[in-house]
Amino acid sequence: MLLDPGMDLTLRPMRYPDFYERYRAAIRNTWTVEEVDLHSDLADLARMTPQERHLINRLVAFFATGDSIVANNLVLNLYQHVNAPEARLYLSRQLFEEAVHVQFYLTLLDTYLPDPDERVKAFAAVDNIPSIRDKAEFCFRWIDTLADLRSLETKQDRRAFLLNLICFAACIEGLFFYGAFAYVYWFRSRGLLSGLATGTNWVFRDESMHMEFAFSVVDTVRAEEPDLFDDKLGEQVTLMLEEAVAAELAFARDLCGDGMSGMNVDQMREYLEYVADQRLRRLSMPIRYGTANPFGFMELQDVQELANFFERRVSAYQVAVEGNVTFDETF
């Protein structure tokens, strides 16, 4: 089974071809930071209000370390416990994508914050900015839950792994990052920061694939070991999401202050509750909030991805992958 202790090394016979196809799909969606022109955003930044600039500065400070935290959990906790080489191929690819995201956000900070002192403050945000520190501590707490677990020998071990996997898919990539994307697309809806929006389109696509891969792992484990999924697990996941919503809402209060036209704390609360319900629904668990999405500009993001005539590049493209694979071959 997928979470059996050990490290299966051979791709034949292939037990989980869906994971292999997800790896191939990720390869087709390769992009590079050099394709994103952030310099076109500088004129927009120059005419923003102080409150808008505060929002952007806080946002890029969160971006500075968010993907590094996800990459650490992937390396420290996920890779060693998923016992299928085709799934580990995808995780290897995900690690590359996290590195590209880190490079993108480094370039973003260097472009948006030309003052070296401001950049230093942004990179130290997990220590110095309470709303970002609280989110980081939430992540670190869940990373540490598997710190001493070398193999998944018992049902309790497997449940601990599932909770970690669900946390990073549903709460961090699926809620913290989606909250950040909402701010970016709010600016885009006003015709601002097109360079940031273009890069975010590609990050959004990657993160959506990461999240769906993790949920497909959960689906597979549910089919193989249904007794792991009881009411207690559902309660733990719901509580986890409630804590994530609270942390992200505190971040929203920091960013939005008294609110701006089309973006305020009440709207972000509704959006975060809506997203949390979407994650619970995907996990086949009862929804918690029953809140509607208040942001019309986010609706199209679930049907990735339209080419914008006004963008310098078409953001929905794929790199060709040559060769055919049949799954009934023997090695």
Q: Could you characterize the architecture of this molecule?
A:
The chain is mainly α and 331 residues long. It has one domain (40-303): Ribonucleotide Reductase, subunit A (Orthogonal Bundle). Helix content is 64%, strand content 0%. The chain contains eleven helices and no strands. Residues 302-315 and 320-331 have low confidence and may be disordered. This is Ribonucleoside-diphosphate reductase subunit beta.
What is the CATH homologous superfamily assignment?
Answer: Ribonucleotide Reductase, subunit A
* Largest sheet data: none
> What is the structural class?
mainly alpha
| Text of the CATH class | Mainly Alpha
Average of per-residue pLDDT values: 90
Explain the layout of strands and helices.
Layout: H1 17-28, H2 42-46, H3 50-78, H4 85-112, H5 116-123, H6 125-128, H7 130-144, H8 155-189, H9 194-224, H10 231-256, H11 265-282
Brief rundown of the structure:
With 331 residues, the protein is mainly alpha-helical. It has helices spanning 17-28, 42-46, 50-78, 85-112, 116-123, 125-128, 130-144, 155-189, 194-224, 231-256, 265-282. The protein is globular.
Keywords:
single chain; 331 residues; mainly alpha; Ribonucleotide Reductase, subunit A; 0% strand; globular; disordered C terminus; Ribonucleoside-diphosphate reductase subunit beta; transmembrane helix; metal-binding; RNR-like; iron
